[in-house]
Amino acid sequence: MMVNVFFFASLREALGVSQMNHSLDRSVTAGELLEQLKEQGAEWDKALKGQLLCSINQDIVSLDTVVSDGDEVAFFPPVTGG
Hints:
This protein has three helices and seven strands, in the order βαββααββββ. The chain is an alpha+beta fold.
C-alpha cells in the first residue's frame, strides 16, 4: 500500500518537507501512521508530538480512521483565530 502524506504550517517548517509518499505493509489507522512517521528520527518525533489534526482525502477525520491504499493523508496543527 502507498499513501501520500502532506504536512502543513509549522509541521512543514519543522520537517523541511511538505509532502512524501509512504509505503505501508498492512492496513493502519491515521494514528498508527503518525506513530510510524515519528520513528523516522528525533526531529520527526518532536515535530509530530502534541495535538494534531488529520484529514484523509480532504475530509477531517479522527486518528482512529483507517487509511486505504492511495489515500492523501494530511497532518496539521490546530488553527486558532482571533
